[in-house]
Design goal:
- The protein has 15 helices and five strands.
- The protein has 320 residues and is α/β, with parallel strands linked by helices.
- The two termini are 37 Å apart.
Length: 320
Amino acid sequence: MKNLYLIYGSNRDLIEEEKNKIILESGVDEYNLSIFDMDEVSYINAINECMNMPFLSDKRVVVVRNAYFFGTQKASRAIDNDFSKLQEYLDDYPDYTTLIFTASVDAIDSKKTIVKSIKEKGDVIECKAYTKESIIRYIDDTLKENGLTLKTEARNELMDRLQDDSLNFKNELEKLLIYSKTNKDISKEDVERIILKDPSLNAYELLNAIQSKNKKEALSVYYDLIVSGKDSLYLLSMFASKFEEILYSKDLLSKGLTNEEFMEALHISKGRAYYMIKQAKELSYSAIRDWLRRCVALDYQIKSGKITKDAGVELLLLKM
């Protein structure tokens, strides 16, 4: 395991997955995990935190979210365009700290000296967006690896459903693999029962309830998703992804994009764009970031065994 990571790309779901995997592998507890958002503070705050000794441990992890300066975009604060402090840290950083930068950018600027230093001293991980072809290939490879063959009708139904859920198709496919361990003869009806179609609309209903602080409605939609077969930890990940999606949408809309340009930039349908634009206009930056922080904190509490996933997500909704 290395001490320095840059995780970037257009696939925010994979970025979170890679970041969480590194945190879990490090084995740090909540007292030695610090998360900084460059939309709110300078990266120098994170560098200062990196130099602090771990608390009753031999390891600490510092995460710097929204580190857009690795791309072509300039930071809003002049201080965050001065990389001298970061370069000083990279020249002589402590072995007890793992520093993780994440950035939802399509590409990093390899001409920047600081980017070259990251590549030389750490691990750079690119998280590309899923394509229809890559999803189909992943599904076929996974079925083959598990010795599972489906009749044409069942396979076509599976492909149709999983391609509608490009952010979470791996979770859905895992459900089918679990089912196949006890029943090798999988029919089209089995696929329809096991693999649910894209829950995005339910997610936006939930976000509407959160925005209006309607706890009863929020819990009602949440329980409907649970009854339909969704795991509460999966739903927590989906909440976080949707809030990140809305945050990104606000940034795009602030640049004056038309609805058509917005749809083209994100490669989404008119219906989905409607919900995203609506939420981006109704939720403030501070509200979105607060929910993101709470989702990240709860995710850590669940995975470290401090609270059960079902109770944790319910409490999250009750405390809106």
